[in-house]
């Protein structure tokens, strides 16, 4: 999370992962000790930084990621190129600390390594060389050189063995690798090494060890996951999300400035609207703008939420916390900001226009604006769970809201909507129906206006305006509209939770199906791929 400092990021992660039996001070000490082990003690109070603010370097960010993963001292740890972006000295110290962790706590660590120095390479106990889906070597690091030498590809003196191995088995640039190789193609070299390894004593010893392990009595599998309680997870995520929203200008502060500007525009355009017959249309237009377009601006925080979703996806798959804790934390932390951007801009628009003067009418106006804004955020959360790309998500969310605005009962009155689909069910699904009706009932009930229609009574009441002019359903009070909107907020947040859980269960099934396809398998073997992706495939 780019807005947090190194200390905050690791400490919050420690609170999420470590058991409740540990005190806060013990978790804090564990976090700071881990930071020092990764050599980040001088950057503890530096923000991680992202596209908007300068912060840590790429290598330092990798070390923060490693800190978060080794907090719980996991029994099995995968590291994908942990030394990328680090100089040779930093690479050695980071890997040396990781090796010490493995020794001290009896842990197994698997790493895909990017151009290791000779000192870093010597830290590894075992080596797995992969080339185009084939296992070239798997065994002790010290025995790899003998395999290459016996097949006519010895490592020259004073050369880094890892560089020599990778150059020998890399056919992206199919040229002679070393002097003395002659015209042999790299593919032929790879085949020679693969056959030699399969017939070697090292391979037989590996197969023997695998057989021996497979015959052992299996105990229950230990799943990596958070040891903190659900309540602790929710509290920590709420605190972390609140800080992130406060420091991220794009989340709420930019929207607050835009809300102020829009409400000043509304307040000056509709200033002192009065109680004339023409003010009926003007009131309805102003309230519709607030219910539709002011809440529409809630999609402005979507890019920041998508970044949160990326963090949530990684931490969720690593077992740090569940979907429920994330939804609760995000919801509670956003409430103060939504109240703030509903209250102050709402007050500007309300009193500049000259709507009903009583304080209870103003409070209802603010609560309804707050609920509608939270509902739009809930809709965008649901969109984000299906469309993770923020550009596609904004387009999708804007399209959904555009349809809801169109048949919300203003541009086309309810009785004039085509009954198939648009009136039933879309009119009742669109939240603008309830937002518009709540605003209209709050404003028009109790007022009276002069009647300009020929042959009619001299005045027309607000109730008559609601029934005949706006075709509002008067069988229930404005508070029912508010309750329905709150219910929609809950429904959309539950939809987000359900979609995340469903996708999590369906994705492995799709991957299994794709892996079982012969066409897919042949593509994996034929196309070049990196060491990292081949390790994942293995």
UniProtKB/TrEMBL annotation:
The keyword Transmembrane helix applies. The keyword Lipid biosynthesis does not apply. InterPro entries: ABC2_TM, ABC_transporter-like_ATP-bd, ABCG_dom, P-loop_NTPase, Plant_ABCG. GO terms for molecular function: ABC-type transporter activity; ATP binding; ATP hydrolysis activity. It is found in: Membrane. It comes from Gossypium armourianum. Keywords: Membrane, Transmembrane, Transmembrane helix, Transport. Belongs to the ABC transporter superfamily. ABCG family. Eye pigment precursor importer (TC 3.A.1.204) subfamily. Residues 4-84 form the ABC transporter domain. It holds the Pfam family ABC2_membrane_7. This is ABC transporter G family member 11-like. Residues 233-444 form the ABC-2 type transporter transmembrane domain. The chain crosses the membrane at residues 249-270, 282-302, 323-350, 362-383, 390-411, 479-503. It is a multi-pass membrane protein. GO terms for cellular component: membrane. Residues 114-170 form the ABC transporter family G domain.
């Amino acid at each position: 999370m780019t807005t947090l400092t190194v200390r905050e990021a690791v400490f919050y992660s420690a609170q999420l992962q470590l058991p409740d039996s540990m005190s806060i001070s013990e978790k804090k000490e564990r976090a700071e000790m881990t930071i020092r082990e990764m050599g980040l003690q001088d950057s503890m109070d530096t923000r991680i930084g992202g596209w908007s603010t300068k912060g840590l370097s790429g290598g330092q960010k990798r070390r923060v990621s490693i800190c978060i993963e080794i907090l719980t001292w996991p029994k099995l740890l995968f590291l994908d190129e942990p030394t990328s972006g680090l100089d040779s000295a930093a690479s050695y110290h980071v890997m040396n600390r990781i090796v010490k962790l493995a020794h001290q706590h009896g842990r197994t660590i698997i790493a895909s390594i990017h151009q290791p120095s000779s000192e870093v390479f010597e830290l590894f106990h075992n080596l797995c060389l992969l080339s185009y889906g084939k296992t070239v070597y798997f065994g002790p690091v010290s025995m790899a050189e003998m395999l290459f030498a016996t097949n006519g590809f010895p490592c020259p003196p004073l050369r880094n063995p890892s560089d020599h191995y990778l150059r020998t088995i890399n056919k992206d640039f199919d040229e002679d690798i070393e002097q003395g190789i002659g015209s042999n193609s790299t593919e032929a070299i790879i085949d020679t090494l693969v056959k030699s390894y399969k017939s070697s004593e090292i391979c037989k010893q590996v197969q023997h060890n695998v057989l021996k392990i497979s015959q052992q009595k299996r105990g229950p599998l230990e799943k990596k996951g958070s040891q903190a309680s659900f309540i602790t997870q929710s509290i920590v995520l709420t605190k972390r999300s609140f800080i992130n929203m406060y420091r991220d200008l794009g989340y709420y502060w930019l929207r607050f400035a835009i809300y102020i500007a829009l409400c000043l525009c509304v307040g000056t355009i509709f200033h002192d609207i009065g109680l004339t017959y023409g003010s009926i249309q003007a009131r309805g237009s102003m309230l519709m703008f607030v219910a539709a377009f002011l809440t529409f601006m809630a999609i402005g925080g979507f890019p920041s939420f998508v970044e949160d979703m990326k963090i949530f996806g990684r931490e969720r798959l690593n077992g740090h916390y569940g979907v429920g804790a994330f939804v609760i934390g995000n919801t509670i932390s956003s409430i103060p900001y939504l109240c703030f951007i509903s209250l102050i801009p709402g007050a500007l628009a309300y009193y500049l226009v000259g709507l009903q003067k009583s304080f209870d009418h103003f409070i209802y106006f603010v609560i309804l604006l707050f609920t509608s804004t939270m509902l739009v955020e809930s809709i965008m959360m649901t969109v984000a769970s299906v469309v993770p790309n923020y550009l596609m998500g904004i387009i999708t969310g804007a399209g959904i809201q555009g349809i809801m605005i169109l048949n919300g009962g203003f541009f086309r009155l309810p009785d004039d909507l085509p009954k198939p689909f648009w009136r039933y069910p879309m009119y009742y699904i669109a939240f603008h129906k309830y937002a518009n009706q709540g605003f209209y009932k709050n404003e028009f009930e109790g007022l009276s206006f002069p009647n300009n229609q020929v042959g009619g009574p001299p005045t027309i009441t607000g109730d008559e305006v609601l029934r005949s002019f706006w075709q509002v359903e008067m069988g229930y009070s404005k508070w029912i509209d508010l309750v329905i909107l709150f219910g929609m907020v809950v429904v959309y947040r539950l939809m987000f939770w359900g979609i995340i859980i469903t996708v999590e269960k369906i994705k492995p099934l799709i991957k299994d199906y794709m892996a079982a396809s012969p066409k897919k398998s042949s593509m994996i073997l034929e196309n070049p791929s990196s060491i990292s992706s081949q390790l994942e495939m293995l």
